[in-house]
Amino acid sequence: MTIPPPDLPPVVVPVFQELTENQQLAFAAEYGRRKRSLAVMIALAIVFPIQLFFLGRIGLAVLFLLTGGGFGIWYVIEWFLTPGRVRDYNTGIANEIILRLQANKPSEE
């Protein structure tokens, strides 16, 4: 059994453990490529707020930039919202990968 990635969302761990070893390895490789780093996204939120683009929130990101970060207020609030957005993004990616792997799982008859 493969050890789950250390930053794997806790809600996904039980499902991860039900995958075959090959599926776990495939999951870990793809999740490692596609997940977003919490530290990097927070740094982007503070230094140059483009993290929303990387988290797939394009419309919100454009609105953010057009309003100058909500005239500076939204800019500061985003520092605190970003960790939750990163967790949600990574959980979505993990669920997507698991669903795809389970769909490709050979049926046991």
Protein architecture, described:
Helices cover 72% and strands 0% of the residues. With 109 residues, it is an all-alpha fold. The protein has a domain at 40-103. Helix 2 runs antiparallel to helix 7 and helix 3 packs antiparallel against helix 7. The radius of gyration is 17 Å and the shape is elongated. The relative contact order is 0.17. The mean pLDDT is 89.
Oligomer: single chain
| Total DSSP helices | 7
Overall geometry comes to elongated
Distance between the termini: 23 Å
Provide the gyration radius in Å: 17 Å
- Largest sheet geometry: none
What is the mean predicted local confidence, pLDDT? 89
Unreliable residue runs: none
The helix-strand sequence is: HHHHHHH
Task: Tell me the total number of β-strands.
Answer: 0
What structural class is derived from the secondary structure elements?
mainly alpha
Strand content: under 5%
Helix fraction, binned, reads over 70%
Please specify the SSE layout and strand pairing.
Blueprint: H1 13-18, H2 21-34, H3 38-47, H4 51-54, H5 58-66, H6 68-71, H7 73-103
Brief summary:
This protein has 109 residues and is an all-alpha fold. The protein has a domain at 40-103. It is built from 7 helices and no strands.
